Amino acid sequence: MVEKLNAADVPVASILTMAELTSDDYMRTRGSFRTVRDGTGGTMRLPVDPTQFQAAEGSDLRGGTVCSDRDPEFLSGSAGAVRLPI
To answer: Which are the contacts of 24, defined by CB distance < 8 A and separation ≥ 6?
Structure first.
């Protein structure tokens, strides 16, 4: 399917399984996972919320969090965010 969409110039990418994702060296190096309790006495690794990622070293992108429409700072307008109509 990916090949057909690429041939039609449609942007597409494969999605990793959880096993592939959690074993990916790049993702581990970037600190993309957190360990959480599974509720049965054990732990499991889950991806970190991508809105919490920091900019890569040497990047000109600013790291930090993305405003949420549930965030009081966002709702008050003091975050400098603009609400877009959906």
So the answer is: 16
